[in-house]
Design brief:
This protein is mostly helical. The protein has 12 helices and no strands. Helix 4 (83-115) packs across helix 6 (131-157), helix 4 packs across helix 12 (234-247) and helix 6 runs antiparallel to helix 7 (161-174). This is Integral membrane protein.
């Protein structure tokens, strides 16, 4: 029997069968198993994050000053932001995304546990903050974020923002397998990027369609008193899991 890496190398060379309906149905069935639990975690986590943000604003900037800032529309116009502020904002958001990405991996792991009818807990979500996984997840997120932001910035500066948006979407599709490859196949950050690109290029339009459907499904939560978003968002993680499971699987 071939090892997992040998199997994946073969998929990169020869491609793989994949149908929209099969992957979507797997994602939806998986989503039904984690929706309530994962949605509740999103809701509680967001509430705690907002409370923490308010506390930090209170002691660093002052709530009154912040309220005055957001009440003036001109203060929120990006054209009025200083270069230092924009740079600090981009760096801060990139690092925050890198720090949060192990949680994204944890929700994919939850989807895997649900599919195998294994128990999952809150600790499952935080399991990938272990250094072995964290460093690879941090690095892969940093590389993807810098690449996407950099290309978008260049296209914006060149006066063709549409190409920047297209590039960002393309990067998202091409790197859809990076996190599952790290947590399920023990790939390094660079290996996962290279392998994800090679695999997704075999079925780019189908995978794009699946991700578009996943995002559209998540957006429907906005129309359910907004709070529904917390319970539709887990579908995105189920979709990432379903794509990896359908292409690579877990039988080796």
């Amino acid at each position: 029997m071939k090892s997992n890496r040998e199997y994946i190398e073969n998929l990169q060379k020869n491609g793989y069968p994949l149908t929209f309906e099969t992957v979507f149905n797997l994602a939806f069935e998986n989503y039904k198993k984690i929706a309530i639990y994962a949605g509740s975690l999103f809701l509680v986590g967001t509430a705690l994050f907002i409370i923490l943000a308010i506390i930090i604003l209170h002691y660093t900037y002052g709530l009154a000053n912040f309220q005055e800032l957001i009440q003036k529309p001109e203060n929120l116009d990006p054209k009025n932001f200083s270069d230092e502020f924009i740079t600090a904002y981009i760096i801060s958001m990139t690092l925050l995304g890198c720090m949060m990405h192990p949680l994204f991996a944890g929700f994919i792991k939850m989807a895997h546990c649900a599919q195998k009818d294994e128990e999952f807990h809150v600790s499952t979500i935080f399991g990938y903050y272990k250094w072995t996984y964290f460093k690879e997840l941090f690095l892969v997120t940093l590389i993807i974020s810098i690449s996407s932001t950099g290309i978008s910035f260049i296209m914006e500066a060149a006066g063709i923002p549409a190409l920047g948006m297209l590039a960002s979407v393309s990067i998202s599709v091409l790197t859809v397998l990076t996190v599952p490859l790290i947590i399920f196949s023990n790939y390094s950050a660079m290996e996962s990027i290279r392998t994800s690109i090679n695999l997704t290029l075999k079925q780019p339009l189908l995978l794009l369609g699946l991700l578009i459907m996943a995002y559209l499904f998540c957006i429907t939560g906005f129309f359910i008193f907004f709070i529904g978003l917390f319970f539709t968002l887990p579908f995105l993680y189920s979709m990432h899991y379903a794509i990896y499971s359908s292409i690579i699987g877990f039988n080796r």
